[in-house]
C-alpha cells in the first residue's frame, strides 16, 4: 500500500530478501549443515557424517543436556513461584509500594549476567552459606536471572485480567484465598505456562553467569558448546548447538500446546 | 467504615482502607526477602568488596588502580563504541525490515516475522558460532571465493576483530527492535497513508511525516533496551575469542577467574552496573511516559537475560 508501482515493490522485496537471507536465515541453516559435516573448505560442507550425534547419544554431551534440562526445570519453577507471588502481591499494594517492587524485580534485567555470577561467588564462597562448587549455585543464578521475566509476564497478564470475575466471586462471599485459587490462578494459567516456557528457554541458553560459577561436575550444555568450539571442534559444537535448539524448541512447542488446551477451559 | 471495608474485599470506595494495603505489603515480603538474599545482598557485597583493597582497610584505592590500567580504559571504550554501533545498526536494519513487513506486504511476511522472533528463544552465542561457518577462515563465503578464483585463502578475515562482534550483535539484537516497531506499525491508520498518498506524497515522505512520528517512542524504547543489552553482552564476545576485543563483562570474567583478582573484578563490575542500570532506568522512564501496551512490554524485554 505504501509503494504503488509494481516494479518498485518488487525491487523493495528483492532488497528485503538480500538483507534477510544472509543475516537471519543462513545462520541457523549453517549450524544445522555443519553439524552433519566433518570439513568446510568449499561453498558447501563436506564429509557427511552422523558421528557428532552418535557422540552426543553416549558421551558427556548427554550429561550436559540432562544437566541443562534439570537446571532449567528447577530454575523456571523457582522463578515462576517467586515471580507470580511477587506480581500478585504487588497488584494489591499501593502505587508507591508497587513501584518499588517493580524496580526490585526488574533490576536483574539491567545488571550484567556476568556480574550476577560474580556476586554469587563473592557472597556464597564462605560459611554459613557455602554454595560455591555445588550445582545449587548454578540453579540459583539461573533462578535470579529469569525471575524478572516471570514477574514481568505475570504482571502484564494481571493487568489484562478482567477484574469483574474476581469482584463477583468476592461479592458472592468467597474468601480471598478461594478467589485466588479458584478464580485468579485458573484465569492466569495460560500466561503462567507461557512464562514458564520463556523462563525454561532462557535458562537453557544461559552462558554468562554460568561461566563464572559452574562446578566441574555440573556442566550445562552452553558451557560444553563453548568448550568444544574453544578447542577447535567447531563441528561437534554445531551438533551440540542443534541439540540445544531442538530441546528448547520442543519445550516451547509443548508449552504452546498446553496454552491452547488451557484456553479452551 | 474501616472494619466494613475489611469485611467486603471488593469495596468499591475510591480510597481503600489502610489495613488491606498493609496486609498486601506484608504478603509481598517473602518474595522480596528471597530476592534480597540471593540478589541484593550479593550485589551489595560486590560493591563492598570493590572498596576493600587486598591489604586490608577500606579505601577507593582499588578504583584508582583499575582506572589507571590501560586495559580497563580500552575495555570501557570498546564496550561503549560496540554498544552504540550495534544499537545504531540494529535500529536501522530493524526499521527497514519492519517497514517492509508492515507496509509493503508480501505473502509469507507474517511467517517471516515469526521466524525472526524465533531468534529471541536462542542464546546469543549461537550467532557467533554461525558466523564462523559463514565468514570464518573455513566457511561458506571464503569457500565460495576459493572455489571460484582458485586462491588458497578467502578474503574475509574480520571475525576476530571488533567488526565480527558488531555484526553478531546487530544480527542478534535486530529482532528486539522489530518487535515493538511492528506492534506500533499495526496501530498506524492505513487511511492516513492513503490520504497522504492520494495527495501526492512520495513513499519516503509518508514514512518520514506519517509513520515515523507514530513509531518514535517504540523506536526509542527498543534502542534503549538494545543499548543496555549490548553493554552487558558476554556470550558473543566470549565466543569470538579475540584477544583485542575486551569489553567490560569480559574484563570482569578474566579478572575474577583467570587472574583471581576479585577486588579488581568487583570494581569493573560496579562501573558496568552503573552504566547499564542508569540506562535501564532511562528506558523504563521512556516506557512509562509512552505507556507501552502489554505486548510491547513483554515483547521488548523478552530475551534480555542471556
Automatic annotation (TrEMBL), chain A:
Matching InterPro entries: MetI-like, MetI-like_sf
Domain (ABC transmembrane type-1) ranges:
65-253
Subcellular location per UniProt equals:
Cell inner membrane; Cell membrane
State the superkingdom. Answer: Bacteria
Mind telling me which Gene3D superfamilies this protein's record contains?
Answer: MetI-like (1.10.3720.10)
TM stretches of this protein = 12-37, 64-88, 100-125, 137-158, 187-214, 234-255
What keywords does the record list, in alphabetical order?
A: Cell inner membrane, Cell membrane, Membrane, Transmembrane, Transmembrane helix, Transport
Q: What's the main place this protein lives?
A: membrane
- Report the CDD domains cross-referenced here: TM_PBP2
Per UniProt, what is the membrane topology? Multi-pass membrane protein
Similarity comment: Belongs to the binding-protein-dependent transport system permease family.
Q: What is this protein's record name?
A: Phosphonate ABC transporter permease
The lineage is: Bacteria, Bacillati, Actinomycetota, Actinomycetes, Kitasatosporales
Automatic annotation (TrEMBL), chain B:
A Pfam family this chain is assigned to: BPD_transp_1
Where is this protein chiefly located?
A: membrane
TM helices/strands, residue ranges: 24-48, 80-106, 118-138, 158-178, 215-242, 262-283
**Mode of membrane association:** Multi-pass membrane protein
Where does it live in the cell? Answer: Cell membrane
Q: Which InterPro entries match?
A: AminoethylPonate_ABC_perm-PhnU, MetI-like, MetI-like_sf
UniProt feature coiled coil, ranges: none
Superkingdom assignment: Bacteria
Write down what this protein is called.
Answer: 2-aminoethylphosphonate ABC transporter permease
**Which ranges carry the ABC transmembrane type-1 domain?**
76-283
Q: Which UniProt keywords apply?
A: Cell membrane, Membrane, Transmembrane, Transmembrane helix, Transport
Name the Gene3D superfamilies on file.
Answer: MetI-like
**Is this entry keyworded Protease?**
no
Q: Name the family.
A: Belongs to the binding-protein-dependent transport system permease family. CysTW subfamily.
Which PANTHER family does the record associate with it? INNER MEMBRANE ABC TRANSPORTER PERMEASE PROTEIN YDCU-RELATED (PTHR42929:SF1), INNER MEMBRANE ABC TRANSPORTER PERMEASE PROTEIN YDCU-RELATED-RELATED (PTHR42929)
Amino acid at each position: 500500500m505504501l509503494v504503488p508501482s509494481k516494479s518498485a515493490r518488487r525491487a523493495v522485496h528483492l532488497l528485503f530478501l538480500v538483507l534477510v537471507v544472509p543475516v537471519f536465515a543462513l545462520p541457523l541453516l549453517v549450524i544445522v549443515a555443519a553439524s552433519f559435516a566433518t570439513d568446510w573448505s568449499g561453498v558447501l560442507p563436506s564429509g557427511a557424517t552422523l558421528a557428532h550425534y552418535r557422540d552426543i547419544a553416549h558421551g558427556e554431551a548427554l550429561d550436559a543436556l540432562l544437566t541443562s534440562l534439570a537446571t532449567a526445570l528447577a530454575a523456571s519453577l523457582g522463578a515462576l513461584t517467586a515471580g507470580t507471588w511477587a506480581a500478585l502481591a504487588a497488584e494489591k499494594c499501593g502505587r508507591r509500594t508497587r513501584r518499588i517492587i517493580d524496580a526490585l524485580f526488574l533490576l536483574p534485567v539491567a545488571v550484567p549476567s556476568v556480574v550476577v555470577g560474580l556476586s554469587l561467588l563473592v557472597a556464597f564462597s564462605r560459611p554459613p552459606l557455602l554454595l560455591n562448587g555445588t550445582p545449587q549455585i548454578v540453579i540459583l543464578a539461573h533462578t535470579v536471572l529469569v525471575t524478572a521475566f516471570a514477574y514481568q509476564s505475570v504482571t502484564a497478564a494481571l493487568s489484562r485480567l478482567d477484574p469483574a470475575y474476581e469482584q463477583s466471586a468476592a461479592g458472592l462471599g468467597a474468601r480471598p484465598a478461594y478467589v485466588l485459587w479458584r478464580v485468579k490462578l485458573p484465569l492466569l494459567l495460560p500466561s503462567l505456562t507461557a512464562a514458564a516456557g520463556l523462563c525454561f528457554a532462557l535458562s537453557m541458553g544461559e552462558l554468562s553467569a554460568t561461566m563464572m560459577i559452574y562446578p566441574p561436575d555440573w556442566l550445562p550444555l552452553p558451557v560444553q558448546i563453548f568448550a568444544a568450539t574453544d578447542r577447535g571442534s567447531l563441528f561437534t559444537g554445531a551438533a551440540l548447538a542443534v541439540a540445544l535448539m531442538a530441546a528448547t524448541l520442543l519445550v516451547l512447542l509443548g508449552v504452546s500446546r498446553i496454552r491452547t488446551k488451557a484456553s479452551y477451559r | 467504615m474501616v472494619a466494613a471495608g475489611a469485611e467486603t474485599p471488593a469495596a468499591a470506595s475510591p480510597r481503600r482502607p489502610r489495613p488491606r494495603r498493609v496486609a498486601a505489603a506484608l504478603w509481598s515480603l517473602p518474595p522480596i526477602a528471597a530476592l534480597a538474599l540471593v540478589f541484593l545482598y550479593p550485589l551489595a557485597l560486590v560493591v563492598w568488596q570493590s572498596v576493600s583493597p587486598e591489604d586490608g582497610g577500606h579505601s577507593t584505592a582499588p578504583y584508582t588502580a583499575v582506572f589507571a590500567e590501560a586495559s580497563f580504559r580500552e575495555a570501557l571504550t570498546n564496550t561503549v563504541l560496540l554498544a552504540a554501533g550495534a544499537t545504531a545498526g540494529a535500529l536501522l536494519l530493524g526499521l527497514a525490515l519492519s517497514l517492509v513487513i508492515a507496509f509493503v506486504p508480501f505473502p509469507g511476511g507474517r511467517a517471516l516475522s515469526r521466524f525472526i522472533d524465533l531468534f529471541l528463544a536462542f542464546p546469543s552465542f549461537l550467532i557467533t558460532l554461525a558466523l564462523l561457518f559463514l565468514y570464518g577462515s573455513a566457511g561458506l563465503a571464503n569457500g565460495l571465493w576459493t572455489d571460484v578464483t582458485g586462491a588458497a585463502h578467502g578474503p574475509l578475515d574480520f571475525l576476530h576483530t571488533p567488526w565480527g562482534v558488531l555484526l553478531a550483535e546487530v544480527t542478534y539484537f535486530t529482532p528486539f527492535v522489530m518487535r515493538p516497531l511492528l506492534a506500533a506499525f499495526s496501530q498506524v491508520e492505513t487511511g492516513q497513508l492513503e490520504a497522504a498518498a492520494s495527495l501526492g506524497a512520495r513513499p519516503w515522505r509518508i514514512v518520514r511525516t506519517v509513520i515515523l512520528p507514530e513509531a518514535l517512542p517504540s523506536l526509542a524504547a527498543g534502542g534503549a533496551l538494545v543499548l543496555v543489552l549490548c553493554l552487558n553482552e558476554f556470550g558473543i564476545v566470549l565466543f569470538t575469542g579475540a584477544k583485542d576485543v575486551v569489553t567490560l563483562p569480559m574484563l570482569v570474567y578474566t579478572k575474577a577467574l583467570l587472574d583471581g583478582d576479585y577486588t579488581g573484578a568487583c570494581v569493573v563490575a560496579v562501573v558496568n552496573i552503573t552504566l547499564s542500570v542508569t540506562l535501564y532506568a532511562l528506558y523504563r522512564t521512556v516506557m512509562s511516559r509512552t505507556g507501552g501496551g502489554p505486548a510491547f512490554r513483554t515483547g521488548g524485554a523478552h530475551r534480555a537475560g542471556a
